[in-house]
Structures are given as structure tokens and as C-alpha cells.
Amino acid sequence: MREYHINRKTNETEISLTLSLDGSGKADVDTGCGFLDHMLTLFASHGKFDLAVSCKGDTNVDDHHSVEDIGICLGKAFDKALGDKRGIIRYGSMILPMDEALILSAVDLSGRSCLCYELPIRAKKIGTFDTELLEEFWVSFVRNCPMSLHIRMLAGKNSHHIAEGSFKAVARALRQACTVDQLNPDAIPSTKGVL
Questions:
Q1: Which of 70, 131, 157, 183 has the smallest count of CB within 10 Å of its CB?
Q2: pTM higher than 0.85 for the full model?
Q3: CB atoms within 10 A of CB 144
Q4: Helix (H), strand (E), coil (C) string for 72-110
């Protein structure tokens, strides 16, 4: 089973997270941040990952620590669940429309951390959520599951649509990349022999 459970406790957050890569898209998410709950729920659904997350964070300060630390935990869970990455497709991409928004996501589970993030969201906040935290989330994720991840807005005006489209696009790109290649289920997908 390609799954992993992580508990992480700091002076700012206490997080429990369980991830199964070979799920059905079930989500049980309570981060203390309603917008992030929404994003992670649709992330699980579109990636067909089973995801359970609970977080008690210092949201009386703001959502920054919770968002960043959940990104850390989710990245670590992906990294551990993938193991040595034997048999995976490795690459995935998606151009996803969300009404007027059009979002490109491409991923290479290369073992090297690189985030190219181009989502020029106009609004500073979506509800109470600071939109600059979206990039913080993906930075934390990529640092803890080393990969090349590109997220780019090709079109869009509505901030909610852009943000939601990005999580859906990344989920679907990751779903492709994490899939086991039925033609080469025991191969490491690299000429180096290691990822």
C-alpha cells in the first residue's frame, strides 16, 4: 500500500495527516481554515487520493503557520508514500478550465525541488484567506517531496476560480505522475537508476 501517516507538533501547529495514493478521493479535512479545507478536499477528489488532515494552529495570529505546516506534512507524506518511486510514470500534466480561468500544471517527480509559480491573483483575500499563502503552501510541499512543479495561469479573472483551478490541476497532474506504469512496474523511470 502506498500510504503514509505523519504527526507533526510545533509551538505553532499540531497536525495529523494520512495519505493514500491509491484511493478513491475520500477526504476528511479540518485545518481550522475553511478555504484550505475546500482546496484540500477537491485536491483529494481530483487526484483520487484518500486524505485525512486535522490541524490545530495559531489561527488567532493568522493562517500562515497552518498553511505552511500542512504543506510540509503533505509533501512528506507524498515522498514517503512514493518510496523509491519504482514503477511510477514520473511525469504528469494538466491544462484545466475552471469557468473563465485556465490553469496549467506540470510535474516531474524528479527528486529535485523546483517550483515555478505564476498565478497573478488580483484579490489579496478570498474570504478571510490571504491569497499569498497559496504560494507558501506549494513551496512547502515541493521542498518536502522534491519535484519540479509548474503552476501557471493561462487565463482568469476570478480569484476563487484561479485558486481552485490550481489545486485541481496539480492534483490531476500528480495523479498521472504517481500512477504505476503497467508496462514497466518494476523500473525506476530514470536513466540514472535512481530518483
A1: 183
A2: yes
A3: 20
A4: HHHHHHHHHHHCCCCCECCEEEEEEEECCEEEEEEEECC
Give the whole-angstrom CA distance, residue 45 versus residue 32: 20
Any idea what DSSP says for residue 127? T
Measured distance CA(21)–CA(155) in Å, rounded: 30
Q: Count the neighbouring beta carbons within 10 Å of the beta carbon of residue 67.
A: 27
Cβ atoms of 148 and 107 closer than 8 Å: yes
Q: Which residue has the cell 506540470?
A: 106
* Residue (of 146, 46, 62, 185) closest to 103 by Cα position: 46
Identify whether the C-beta of residue 131 lies closer than 8 Å to the C-beta of residue 159: yes
Cell of residue 26, nine digits: 475520500
Q: Are strands 148-155 and 114-118 parallel, antiparallel or unpaired?
A: parallel
pLDDT, tens digit (0-9, with 9 covering 90-100), for 34-45: 999 999 999 999
